[in-house]
Amino acid sequence: MTKWIKMLSIVLNNKYICNKISLTLLSLLMLVAIKLYLLNEAPKQVGKSIDPCVTEGRTSVTFIMGDDESQKNNFYKNATYFYHMDITQKTDFVVHSCKTLMDVSEYLSNNSNGKKFGTINMVCHGNPWQGLSIPIAKHLPRANVSNLENALKNKWIKPLCSDGIDHNTIINIVSCGVGQNDDFKSVINKFFTCPDNPFPPLINIETHFVNFSDKHEKRLSDFYFVLSKYEYDDPQIIVNKLQNKYQQIPIDWQTAYNNDNKLSGDRPYKHQFRMLVEWKIGFEHQNEIPNLSKEPDIVTWLKTQNDAMTELEQMKLKLEDFMWHSFVVTDQQNTLKIKGYANVEGVMVDKPTKVTTEI
Fold first, then answer.
1. How far apart are CA 188 and CA 191, in angstroms?
2. Among 187, 214, 241, residue at a domain's last position
3. 356 in a domain, yes or no?
4. Whole-prediction pTM value?
């Protein structure tokens, strides 16, 4: 840098040269000198951290992966507003047309337009047991662990490979607690990591339950729960189960489970939903279809089915968690359908730090 300053000083102090050289050339020399200094003296980044200066000029996109089924839960509607308007988390594009994993993959592969992606958000319902609520593709089932593994193994889908994605791309999976399941984290990372790309993206998979309780707020919560095949009329049974399971958690379970107000500030509140597991099993001949009229018979038969047991194991669930039903499918030849219902009952505790808009 010292040599460049001396040279410029000589140029500026020589009146004859100054009369002959235009100001444009002097400006150019100054820019070159500064550039060389920055290249030689500026500190270098080490490691896989995301450089905010790199991501600033990149394209950001949010995929809203579903539609609200009722006015009681405006999850997708509020998420749309949030990612349009939030002062820190809004993205350049908010896309509603992609409803499967393959839709997202095709969009990212075909719409980089010569630019790199910075932040990519995928917003959809899900849970730690069954993965994402969306299909893998239009002709494939739900994006859970076993279905994704089968789709990748059989090459029904391919990992995402896009010129617009590199190590400075951040992919955020915004879905309730799916990051709690290590098997799901592993297989979703396989899907979003191109084998030919030596610089894979950074993938963040939400471990908390997430809700967009209104247009201005993204709320993260811890969910303490128990599973039951029965719908108990006496809430004290659930309270006792929660107390036994989470003895080290300092929560008044009785008060919390009796609190139905989800907007009660920092107070824990009741949360419940019903979970469905379903399989269709095809047989070559009608006489091969087992007679499973009673639930104990279904449980005994399912224990002999490796695929079903593997799927439950990957979901961290047990046969005993469900109430099982079976029936013969009328519109598909020699096909048996088995359904299992489980009640997920528990208490939600909102995290103290909330992401909110300022608009």
1. 5
2. 214
3. no
4. 0.77
pLDDT tens per residue, range 283-308: 999 999 999 989 999 999 999 999 99
Q: Which residues of the chain have pLDDT under 70?
A: 1-56, 263-265, 353-359
d(CA 338, CA 299): 10
Tokens of 326: 């079976």
Q: Are 120 and 169 in contact (CB under 8 A)?
A: yes
- Residues 6 or more apart whose CB falls under 8 angstroms from that of 238 comprise 226, 228, 232, 257, 345, 346
First to last CA, the chain: 47
Query: Do residue 110 and residue 190 come from a single domain?
Result: yes
User: What gap in Å lies between CA 291 and CA 336, rounded to an integer?
Assistant: 10
| Same domain assignment for residues 291 and 321 | yes
Which are the contacts of 116, defined by CB distance < 8 A and separation ≥ 6? Answer: 58, 59, 164, 165, 166, 168, 169
My answer on whether 67 and 207 are in the same domain is: yes
pLDDT for 353: 58
Handedness of CA 187, 188, 191, 196 (dihedral sign): negative
Burial class (CB in 10 A: 0-12, 13-18, 19+), 71: exposed
pLDDT in tens, 303-356: 999 999 999 998 889 999 999 999 999 889 999 999 999 999 999 999 875 554
The number of distinct structural domains making up the chain is 3
Q: Which residues contact 184 (CB under 8 A, 6 or more apart)?
A: 128, 131, 144, 145, 178, 205
Per-residue model confidence (pLDDT) at position 198: 86
Asked whether residue 72 falls in the same domain as residue 185, the answer is yes
d(Cα 253, Cα 251) in Å, to the nearest integer? 6
Contacts 24+ apart (CB under 8 A), 295-299: 295/323, 295/324, 295/325, 298/324, 298/325, 298/326, 298/338, 299/324
Q: Which domain holds residue 26?
A: 2-41
